Amino acid sequence: MSGQAVNPAIEKLPTPAEFGETFAHLEREIGKVVVGHRDALRQILVAFFAGGHVLIEGVPGIGKTLIVRSLGEALDLAFSRVQFTIDLMPADITGTRVFEENEQGRRTMTFSPGPLFTHIMLADEINRATPKTQSALLEAMAELQVTVAGTTYPLKLPFFVLATLNPIEMEGTYPLPEAQLDRFLFKVPLAYPGLEELRSIVRGTTGATQGRITPVFPDHPAERINTLRHMVREVLVAPQVEDYVASLVRATIPEVTTDEKVKTYVSYGASPRGAQALILGAKVVALLAGRVNVSFADVEEVAAPALAHRVVVNFAAQSEGVTARSIVEHLLETARKWQR
């Protein structure tokens, strides 16, 4: 997993209280148009400030695209949306080289950037594109750059990919390979809205007036966000918390774990990127609690979105209804008993 570049010239970082106020302000602004999904929205924002990318899974029409578009409006950052389809080509995302003719009639090859050159990119229904097109995102997500015809072009900072998956229409889809899933810091499921939430959605979207989002940062939003991301990296992690994270990740690996449930139901465990995701996500949670050091509880809060999509269960688990998320929750409960 790659981290976002930081600016060494940053002299003064915000306080944890100021970080928490900015985070809460962002939640309120998005909440003007996005009804419900509070836990999911918090996880998405945690991943954003941690410098990672997010994969959202949910049925059509429950607000996946709205969340991403609202995030772009609230942050006042460049936003692009790509509808992934089976005929989409890598160049449709990254851009391509084209011939241009000047006034003298001389032709030159120039690079025409694609929608990937933005701050926030929505990869809508990413599993509808072919693996070749899906892989076009890999270099951008990991290296913050795009290489076309042997030339490398850096991306804007901050850069954030938010991809969506539709879990119910499997025909004509290409499941993301484990290596690409591992590039996402978090995977966040979106549930159906409750009764009151559905009423609020109907009232807010069928009336004469609708909520309007005001940008959180009045000026220089990209610089301010990069500063906040740098602040996240400065949060301290004690050796015992690092050991806890390492032990939790290794417990997901059937070849080395002592947990019988993992040995029975898991084919492949989480990679080292899972440990990085736990630490970075926990650092954001620590700041939201007003602290500059990570606790065990901070790690546990982000464990499910950070690890569940990195744990591959076998056929026995699928036949018995055991999910990767339930495996992670089981390991957390086991760890709590050990701590007590």
Describe the structure.
It is a single chain. With 340 residues, this protein is of the alpha/beta class. Strands 2-5-8-1-9 form a 5-stranded parallel beta sheet. A two-stranded antiparallel sheet has the order 3-4. Residues 1-10 have low confidence and may be disordered. It is built from 15 helices and 11 strands.
Short description:
By secondary structure, the chain is of the alpha/beta class.
Query: And the CATH topology of the largest domain?
Result: Rossmann fold
The coarse overall form would be: globular
Question: What's the number of domains?
Answer: 2
Radius of gyration: 21 Å
CATH class category name of the largest domain: Alpha Beta
Look at the helices and sheets and give the structural class: alpha/beta
Residues in helices, as a percent range: 40-55%
One letter per element, helices H and strands E, the order comes to HHEHEHEEEHHEEEHEHHHHEHHEHH
**CATH superfamily of the largest domain, called what?**
P-loop containing nucleotide triphosphate hydrolases
The fraction of residues in strands falls at 15-25%
Average of the residue pLDDT scores: 85
Brief descriptors of the model:
340 residues; disordered N terminus; 15% strand; Rossmann fold; 5-stranded parallel β-sheet; alpha/beta; 2 domains; two-stranded antiparallel sheet; Helicase, Ruva Protein, domain 3; globular; single chain
Secondary structure layout:
Layout: H1 16-31, H2 38-50, E1 54-57, H3 64-75, E2 79-83, H4 91-94, E3 95-101, E4 107-113, E5 120-124, H5 131-134, H6 136-143, E6 145-148, E7 151-154, E8 160-165, H7 178-181, E9 186-189, H8 195-206, H9 221-233, H10 239-250, H11 260-265, E10 266-268, H12 272-288, H13 296-307, E11 312-313, H14 315-319, H15 324-339
